[in-house]
Amino acid sequence: MTVSAQLVTEEFDPEGILFWKFYCDPSDLHRVKRYLIERNCEIEEAFVGYIPKREILVPNHVKNAARKLIVELNKIPTVDNVYTNIM
């Protein structure tokens, strides 16, 4: 079985514990997860998210308005995730 991640990064959680973050094609998510589990890796979470192809720079007042909108959207029970390309 061929399994590939497009990007793997080493990061630290808020408690200072090292973890790996894998980025892969959404259609490969379950294959990558299964591959890691078969090699006794502990999977904390695996999900399909969105990464912007291009981030945009906006003035601070626009950024603040967008941040407030995102906070309000996240209060809605049926909203799972909000994605943005604003830097």
Automatic annotation (TrEMBL):
Residues 18-86 form the TACO1/YebC-like second and third domain. InterPro entries: TACO1_YebC-like_2nd/3rd_dom, Transcrip_reg_TACO1-like_dom3, YebC-like. This is TACO1/YebC-like second and third domain-containing protein. It comes from Argiope bruennichi.
